[in-house]
Design goal:
Layout: H1 2-20, E1 21-30, E2 41-44, E3 50-52, E4 58-64, E5 68-72, E6 79-82, E7 92-94, E8 104-106, E9 112-114, E10 122-126, H2 127-130, H3 138-142, E11 149-153, E12 162-166, E13 179-182, E14 185-187, E15 221-227, H4 233-236, E16 244-249, E17 255-269, E18 284-286, E19 305-308, E20 311-314, E21 317-319, H5 325-329, E22 333-345, E23 349-361, E24 368-381, E25 386-401, H6 411-416, H7 443-449, E26 451-467, E27 473-492, E28 509-533, E29 536-561, E30 571-574, E31 580-599, E32 603-614, E33 624-634, E34 646-660, E35 673-678, E36 681-686, E37 690-691, E38 699-712, E39 717-736, E40 745-768, E41 772-789, E42 794-796, E43 806-809, E44 816-820, E45 842-844, E46 849-850, E47 861-862, E48 864-868, E49 874-884, E50 887-897, E51 900-903, H8 904-911, H9 916-923, H10 930-934, E52 942-944, E53 947-958, E54 968-982, E55 1002-1003, E56 1011-1020
Parallel strand pairs: 1-7, 13-16, 37-40, 51-55
Antiparallel strand pairs: 1-4, 2-3, 2-5, 5-6, 8-9, 10-15, 11-12, 13-14, 15-16, 17-22, 17-56, 18-21, 19-20, 22-23, 23-24, 24-25, 25-26, 26-27, 27-28, 28-29, 29-30, 29-31, 31-32, 32-33, 33-34, 34-38, 35-36, 38-39, 39-40, 40-41, 41-49, 42-43, 43-44, 44-48, 45-46, 45-47, 49-50, 50-53, 51-52, 53-54, ...
Length: about 1000
């Protein structure tokens, strides 16, 4: 009996043990959006036994009743659940952790990592921070929000282009704009002129037109990551030297369909006027405004002349009434932006769709920009291993434009170069506006009769496959398409008056052009996550990218127009060189391998390499190797930091190489020939006198960065510090050659320069209570650019209509102004002529030393030196966001300091008698002839372009759930570019007549950036 009893007890014990041990399965998801979390740890508390979720967030683990499972993942809070007798499956939803170091960052088309793993500073911007102040495009939405970024709007035209420089200028001939990637699609952000073809104007081909980023609706964006320096070197290689902007758009989510409808009304108006000191007043006006000599220096002076620097100037005067031309050309433009979207789906299929229409009128009369876009995104999970998504975004944008800067007949320039003693609204018997002085066209004729239009049809589409053949391995394949057709039409009617400057206005002008761009990229990204044990984790990434680019440009220009016809068929005479056409093709491809080692969730090492190639260069030079190394050490995970007030802290460092392909076109390495005719025979000449060079290589940047990220008081205060240095070599530059070679220059890899600087980011959650929350942010960055090597000590970049002497010089920042300057006394005051006028410095041009004659006056040749620097000393921004119950108030200031602008408008106003100095001459505050004495001194035109702007201000109220249908109604009042603290001599120190790719900054008739007020309603249901 005793033996049988023991056997029974043993049997019952075994049965009980087996009953208490079981296998638990389930899925771990993100609570915010229901997306599975791969690599999440599932650990039995009190043991080292555990499991890791696969790429679908699924896990399986053997446990006993009464034990507790702990679910954790980087970037999410930890959840613990106790096992009961009847527990067989546990599905867990983890909340995103607020700590900054655990934030998940987008690094490439489908690559993700937590911030703590990265050795680079990366800026992340969420949807709500982009659209508070109703921005027109994504670039304006980014202003003031990125440390180290100088984001400038080059023109106040409704479709005006933007320039973005991340950590300074990185190329002399090429663009410094970053690479844009939207949902894995490499986006074309080029600026191609189709309305100012420059054949007739004689101006250099300076483009201040639209960026194609203006086609993207900010309301469609979920988040943006900005990668500075070498952070994206392995992923994008030869396209990453200027940084990368990664845009993620909104997508479908599981659950009931969510609808959003918003609409807004905007007003645009001139922020400030200039030269108002003479408007509406009668002054004794000099007939020649003190500018033009009546004869040569040897002519006999009369009672009506004054001698200034050897010239006799006419000083006769008469009474005039002055007009405010600004009231004639500027207006208050209206805008509206209407948007509707839906999001929904289930565990298998998710969908999102949107449609938006925006129209924005400019502050120059009869100008506007319109954008109609519709976007659809679908995602379907076929099974546990295969998921596919498809997205398509169609955009139609159009604009009614007026000539912008760099042409004398633009409305702004026509006003600047015309004395304001004429009534622009006067008409002749036929109803035509009368001409103005010097044969210049009436600015109002440009506004009323010029028809300049641009239209773009664009499709941005992506197809993606996500395949998970086995646990912790994923393969992502992407096909991205960016195609657009850009059309431009210009009609300038016959001018009703003869001898107009430019002369082609006499007979009218018409042009039609098209620019077709086809861009395709396909990427394969492979990723394997290997958690060796809870302390060691390896992440291996590998893949390839292939990009093809094709464009075709065609243009026709004609003059001598037929009556009553406004299309391209109106011309009787083709302009020389028309029709013209061009075609460009190139391919870019590369392969990369990246390995990240994580040790105890506090020490991370990353090594990567990429082999890249581009058909822009010859076979011998097209393949380039780009390595990358980085490390991150999370100090706050050490035991000695646990009780400190420092809630998160890490040190980071990185080094990487990347390239740039923007300095030359696909065929620049070849010698191109043009045909001609000589005595009836066909001739060939080198086009542009530029000889090819088959030995060209891509420009290359080697960047290292060190920094720290610190969070204090449970991350209520977050500080990010970075120091970087980018050494750029193999800069592509024109090198002069002897005319006997049949050319005057050739492109070579001969330049070097570097950028180095600091970036500081500061965020402070000053108040965190149930009904009130206040966040403050501050960004500061300082970049120093130095050109370190050139084929010659100094050379001038291409000239421009403003006459800006833009130079590149060894040992100096890129794009300095180098020209004539004032003669000064030792105390810095002007050295005046015996007649009391300022004058230019003279001396020995070989040594650059100033010289004085016996009377102490300058003698010798006019000297040149650096008279300005367009590169800012530093960039800063400050923002605040306050929530009080259902109210939200936000404000953002940003600006640049230490910028010099070559302001041609300021000089011209004085010359025609409407400027500030001209007024002082007329009132006797300055001696007659003062303007003439300084008019040819180039330093006179260099002015301070520093500014701090009230960039955004927004006030909104959320009513919350109104009824069973409306989940929320939000009303928002906002403003943009409302005020500028600056000393600029013209309209706006931010604009740049040089356009998107200019290394310098100058002002020559650019449309000023308007101040805008918006009222918006947003419904969610």
């Amino acid at each position: 009996m005793k033996k049988s009893f023991l056997i029974l007890l043993l049997f019952l014990f075994v049965q009980t043990a087996f009953a208490q041990t079981k296998t638990i399965t389930g899925t771990v998801k993100n609570k915010a959006d229901g997306i599975p979390i791969p690599g999440a740890s599932v650990i039995i508390q009190g043991t080292k036994n555990g499991s890791v979720t696969d790429m679908d967030g699924k896990y399986s683990i053997t446990v006993s009743t009464g034990q507790t499972l702990s679910f954790s993942s980087m970037g999410f809070t930890t959840s613990a659940i106790k096992i009961s007798d009847n527990t067989t499956s546990i599905n867990v939803s983890l909340s995103e952790e607020l700590k900054a170091l655990n934030e998940v960052i987008v690094l490439g088309s489908t690559l993700r990592a937590t911030r703590k793993e990265l050795g680079n500073a990366v800026t992340s911007i969420k949807a709500q921070d982009l659209t508070r102040a109703q921005p027109i495009g994504i670039t304006s939405a980014l202003q003031g929000k990125i440390a180290g970024a100088q984001i400038s709007q080059n023109s106040g035209d409704p479709s005006g282009g933007f320039s973005i420089k991340l950590r300074g200028t990185s190329s002399i001939l090429g663009s410094s704009d970053p690479l844009y990637v939207i949902d894995g699609v490499v986006m074309n952000n080029s600026t191609t002129n189709v309305t100012n073809l420059n054949v007739t104007s004689g101006n250099s081909n300076i483009q201040i037109g639209q960026n194609r980023s203006s086609d993207i609706n900010p309301n469609d964006i979920e988040s943006i990551e900005v990668l500075n320096g070498g952070a994206a070197a392995a992923i994008y290689g030869s396209r990453a030297a200027n940084g990368v902007i990664l845009i993620t758009t909104k997508k479908g989510r599981s659950g009931a369909t969510k609808y959003t409808f918003s609409t807004s009304l905007t007003t645009n108006s001139l922020r400030k006027k200039v030269y108002t000191n003479l408007v509406g007043k009668q002054f004794m006006n000099p007939l020649t405004a003190g500018l033009y000599p009546i004869n040569n220096a040897s002519a006999t002076p009369t009672a009506n002349t004054v001698n200034v620097l050897g010239r006799n100037l006419d000083t006769r005067t008469f009474d005039v009434t002055r007009h405010d031309y600004q009231d004639d050309i500027f207006t208050t433009g209206l805008g509206n932006d209407t948007y509707f979207s839906l999001q929904g789906g289930d565990d298998k299929t998710k969908y999102s769709a949107s449609i938006g229409y925006m129209k924005n009128e400019g502050i120059v009369k009869n100008s506007d920009f319109k954008r109609l876009g519709t976007k659809v995104k679908l995602q379907h999970e076929f099974n546990s291993k295969l998921t596919a998504s498809f997205g398509i975004n169609y955009i139609n944008s159009s604009s009614n434009e007026k000539p912008d800067g760099n042409v004398f007949w633009s409305p702004i320039n026509s006003v600047i170069i015309t004395n304001n003693i004429y009534d622009l609204n006067e008409r002749d018997a036929n109803g035509d506006l009368k001409a103005v002085e010097l044969g210049r066209i009436n600015p109002l004729s440009v506004i009323e009769t010029f028809k300049i239009t641009q239209e773009t049809d664009r499709i941005v589409s992506d197809f993606q496959l996500n395949y998970k053949p086995f646990k912790n391995f994923t393969a992502d394949f992407i096909v991205g398409v960016d195609n657009f057709n850009q059309k431009g039409n210009v009609f300038i009617p016959r001018y009703p008056y003869a001898n107009v400057n430019p002369s082609f206005f006499d007979n009218g002008y018409v042009s039609e052009s098209s620019n077709k761009v086809n861009q395709l990229n396909n990427d394969l990204n492979l990723r394997y996550l290997w958690e060796i044990n809870p302390d060691y984790k390896l992440t291996t990434s590998a893949g390839y990218n292939i990009q093809t680019y094709r464009d075709k440009f065609f243009a026709v220009e004609g003059r001598d127009l037929k009556p009553f016809v406004e299309t391209i068929n109106a011309f009787n005479t083709l302009i020389a060189g028309s029709p013209s056409s061009g075609e460009a093709k190139y391919n870019v491809w590369g392969y990369y391998l990246q390995e990240t080692i994580g040790i105890k969730d506090k020490l991370f090492f990353t090594a990567a390499a990429r082999l890249d190639a581009s058909t822009v260069f010859s076979k011998e030079n097209r393949s380039q190797f780009y390595p990358k190394l980085s490390a991150s050490y999370v100090l706050s995970n050490e035991d000695f930091m646990k009780d400190a007030f420092v809630s998160s802290a890490r040190l980071r460092g990185s080094w990487g190489e990347s390239g740039s392909l923007t300095a030359i076109g696909p065929y620049a390495r070849f010698t191109n020939y043009a045909t001609g005719n000589l005595v009836g025979n066909t001739t060939f000449t080198i086009e542009g006198n530029k000889k090819g060079n088959l030995d060209l290589r891509p420009e290359k940047s080697s960047t290292y960065e060190v920094g720290a990220d610190v969070g204090l008081f449970n991350d209520r205060i977050n500080v990010s510090l970075s120091y970087y240095r980018a050494d750029i070599k193999d800069l592509l530059l024109p090198v002069q050659s002897a005319a006997s070679t049949g050319s005057t220059n050739t492109i070579q890899n001969v330049g070097k320069m570097n950028n180095k600087g600091v970036e500081i980011g500061f965020k402070y959650n000053a108040i965190r209570k149930e009904n009130i929350n206040l966040d403050l942010s501050f960004n500061f960055s300082k970049n120093k650019n130095v050109v370190t090597d050139l084929p010659q000590p100094r050379f001038q970049l291409d000239s421009n209509p403003a006459g800006a002497p833009v130079f590149v010089e060894v040992g100096k920042p890129i794009g300095i102004y180098y020209g004539t300057y004032y003669a000064r006394n030792d105390d810095g005051s002007f050295l005046l002529t015996p007649s009391g006028y300022p004058q230019g410095e003279k001396g020995n041009p070989t040594t650059g030393a100033a010289q004085r004659d016996a009377s102490g006056q300058p003698t010798g040749t006019f000297l040149n030196k650096q008279i300005g620097d367009p590169n800012p000393d530093y960039i800063l921004s400050f923002g605040a966001n306050l929530n009080v119950k259902k109210f939200n108030f936000s404000v953002l200031f940003d600006g640049v300091q230490g910028v010099d602008v070559f302001d041609a408008d300021y000089r011209t106003r004085q010359g025609v008698g409407t400027g500030e100095l001209a007024a002082k001459e007329l009132t006797g505050e300055l001696p007659r002839g003062y303007i003439w004495s300084i008019y040819q001194i180039q330093e006179f035109r260099v002015v301070d372009g520093s500014y701090i702007k009230l960039r955004e201000v927004s006030l909104s109220y959320s009513f919350g759930k109104l009824n069973s249908f409306f989940n929320d109604l939000t009303i928002n009042a906002s403003g943009r570019n409302l005020y500028s603290w600056d000393k600029f001599t013209s309209y706006d120190p931010e604009t740049n007549s040089g356009g998107q790719s200019s290394v310098a900054k100058y002002n020559f008739g650019s449309i000023p950036i308007p101040k805008s007020y918006s009222l918006a309603l947003k419904f969610q249901f």
